[in-house]
Amino acid sequence: MHTLKKLSEDALCHWLSWLRDRPQDKIPDAGRVWKFLQPAAALLMNVATRCSYDSQPYVTQIFLPMLVSKGRLHITPHNLKEVLLYFMENKPECENNESSMKQVKVEDVECSEHYLSFLPFLGNLKNLSVLVIGSVVNDDLLSVLGINCPLLQIIDSRDDTGNMVSDVGIAYLSQCRKLKHVYFSAFADGYDAISEQLGFSGRGVALLLLLPEIKNVICSEYLLRDALHFLYQARYQRQTLRVRCMLLDHLEVSYSTIQILPILCPELEVVALRVDSGKERGIGNSLSSLVNLRILIMTMESGIKLRDTLVTGYGHQLSFLYITTYILDSENIILLSHSCPQLKTLVLRMYSFGFDGVAISDLKKPLFPSVEKLELRQNISVRLFKYLSTQMMNIQEVHCGWATIHNIEDALKVVMKAGAWQQVEYLALPMTCEISFDLTVELVSSLPNLKHLVVMVQRSNEGALQQYIRQSAPGLRWCYYPEVSPSTSGCLSHDVWTTAT
Questions:
Q1: Which InterPro entries is this protein grouped with (predicted)?
Q2: CB within 8 A of 91, min separation 6: which ones?
Q3: Rounded to two decimals, what is the model's pTM?
Q4: 54 contacts: CB under 8 Å, gap ≥ 6
């Protein structure tokens, strides 16, 4: 047993894989294996995940006592039978365990022959607080949740490709008074009277927005728009909503909807919107009225300038700014830098490669002194890349994996010559181009704090780069693909399951 305590996760995973692949008549009882593993209890949650218990019925059997006690379970067609059987055989124990099943992820269970037992099982999870479900999201499911799961706080069905929810299901779901986050799929659309297609409406979404602890509801933008207008017109006694996030970046959401936000949703911290030509100042005034605004995602029509959005009125509040636009000039960049003194994360997505690059020599202070994370996406001018890289002195993360930047190698040489990126710990270079081995080595050697590098090199140089990193930068992690970025993390993350606690 003392030896088992000293085993690594890798060794335990290897042993369990060997055990699982043995002939059926030679596989030991799952309960015996679980008892044998007890001395390594601290490692077992990670071991279960690494062994893909959700796709291995035998591995699920081994770890179910721990998964239930931890209150976190991933259910698929592969292990649904084992889960149902365990709960049937241990029902009193599961019901008496306060932590029992607070977080559940469900995938493709309709493919299982045991699917008919799934909803009754779900209805027994009285302490359920997080449900991530990628299929079979319909009125029946939401009714079961509304009737039986009063502690539900998060439901995420963004991976569901069906369209089987109506306002009836939404009404049942709204009985979960503890709900904070609701995420619907883009396929969950409004009711179509012509085709008699099932769907829900803005009035249904309004029921969710009225919940006392709700922070955000993610669904089709036009449904949110309809919900806001319905609630605004029906506002009795000047009631306001507690919602903190409103993602309305869509062509079908007009300026009139943005005007409603400060009146109906004064506590908003996160807003995504479009800025149409001629409406810049009105939108700027609305944003300035949101005193808790911290995160802004803004798409600007061609020809709109940042100055016209009155950024000086709300920029001082922002910690995160994501701008999508056609063209930027140095005047806009300098204005942003001066207007957003508390900004920590800046994301720029460009439709064109336009940037004037003038007035660089006129700068008296570094750009964005508070910004720690910079992300550049889509079509980025090499002049803009050099401009930002050499003038942002305190940057710690540079994310360009999803950008197209021409002449990137010449730009990297300019960055190194300027002595920039000295604080950078995470660097993701564009995946659209290969960087030479010599330049990659020079770049790594010039960045003393670099811990994570995403770069494409020629296949023939991969081994040499790995060897160089092992010998000269052993603390550096190198990969080909950017795993995270500011625009896909935090409140913009699509991975509720990983971040749920």
A1: LRR_dom_sf (IPR032675)
A2: none
A3: 0.91
A4: 60, 74, 75, 76, 78, 79, 107
